[in-house]
Amino acid sequence: MSDARDPLPDWPTPDWPTPNWHYETTAVQSAIPRGLGETVGIPVHQAAAFQFTTLEEAQSEFAQGTGLSYARLQNPTVRALEERLTALEGGAATVALASGQAATLTAILSVCRAGDHVVSTASLFGGSAGLLNNVLPLMGISATLTANTPQAIAAAMRPNTRLVWAETIGNPAGDVPDLAALAEVAHGQGALLGVDNTWGGVGLLCRPLEHGADLVTHSLTKWAGGHGSVMGGSVTVGTRHDLTRNPLYTEGGESSLLSVRGEAALGWRARWFGAHQLGMTLAPHSAFLIAQGLETLALRLRHESATALALAGWLDARPEVGRVSYPGLPGSPHHALAQRYLRGGCGAVLTFEVPDPAAFLARLRVIRIAPNLGDTRTLIVHPWTTTHGRLPEAARTAAGVTPQTLRLSVGLEALEDLQADLAGALD
Ligand SMILES: *Cc1c(COP(=O)(O)O)cnc(C)c1O
């Protein structure tokens, strides 16, 4: 049980409100103060601690301050990134963390404790499935992974289910959940809907909070950082969420999380758990690189999505290529939901099957074999033996992975060079 009176401050309110700008404007203009001598751009505050000049200042900071005392709790560069992420996702507050994995763990522990239950779609990033199947049970939190339909999710709900979990676009199956229907199922039972929006590009392709989700997470390592050079993660909480049926938040009368923290309770607990208690804090220089990456995310991801669509169509027409999965293909079983929930593109990732993946990979000359996504360079992996290799076979199949599947994360190279590389490897 968290101590709701722990002297970690309530979520700091932004220094200035972010106006109702378009995505591209928010991405470059948010979280930078205007004023004489202010930096143009987000500066790096490479510091572990911040000063007080009197004992009284220190006492007051520890009692109800801004968190600007010790960098595990708060750092101005990390805080600027958090404000930018909140604005881009249309949320209420964000905690930035050291990795996407840290963000997923923090999101779940913000809502669940021992004895609680999570229902998740099975087409998940391998690390998320690992947390749900192997790590959370150690803490007494159980999970059911099931098919990516509202019916299957509803059937798996239990009285102690506190969280429904999905990915905006399933990894690597390319399936798009019916977010509004999942929100209805979750809320109907007093649970929250959490969405890993990594593939939704920080609110560019999809803003799950607008479709009923209560919190979104990101691996900022992917399209946010965008250059394959930095790791990070984040949890953004929405402006509306009902925790009145979750005992973790209501128990304890006057000192319950909801009584003490009010509407800020969920965001408070995410920061308290992820940064303050578990110490999965994001480094300031990483925050700077990610904030900079966000400034070109819209340009990059729209371009990469267009290239991915062209490559998916081209691969689909090749007789040597087996099943091609990309939600942007008109023939995809996920096309209708993609049309409904994604805007400006269907993302930069596609999967396809080849008869001999090892021979195919050995012939590539442009595309590199690496287990990352959202890099400026096009990367390819064999999920069966790498990213999803530690899952039981049935779980791999449920996640849409076969021994022939290859996952391509499309970068910024010219379409013609990528097509020629793939053609050379197929011949
Ligand atoms: C990569 C990834 C993660 C984990 O993020 P890390 O930054 O590698 O810890 C979580 N979810 C999705 C969808 C991812 O692609």
TrEMBL record:
UniProt keyword annotation of Lipid metabolism present: no
Domain of life: Bacteria
Keywords associated with the record: Lyase, Pyridoxal phosphate, Transferase
One example of a Gene Ontology biological process annotation: L-homocysteine biosynthetic process
Entry EC no(s): 2.5.1.49
PTM sites of type N6-(pyridoxal phosphate)lysine: K222
Obligatory cofactor(s): pyridoxal 5'-phosphate
InterPro entries: Cys/Met-Metab_PyrdxlP-dep_enz (IPR000277), OAc-hSer/O-AcSer_sulfhydrylase (IPR006235), PyrdxlP-dep_Trfase (IPR015424), PyrdxlP-dep_Trfase_major (IPR015421), PyrdxlP-dep_Trfase_small (IPR015422)
GO molecular function terms listed in the Swiss-Prot or TrEMBL record: cysteine synthase activity; lyase activity; O-acetylhomoserine aminocarboxypropyltransferase activity; pyridoxal phosphate binding
GO CC annotations, alphabetized: cytoplasm
Keyword Transmembrane helix included in the entry's annotation: no
Family statement: Belongs to the trans-sulfuration enzymes family.
UniProt name for this protein: O-acetylhomoserine (Thiol)-lyase
Lineage summary: Bacteria, Thermotogati, Deinococcota, Deinococci, Deinococcales
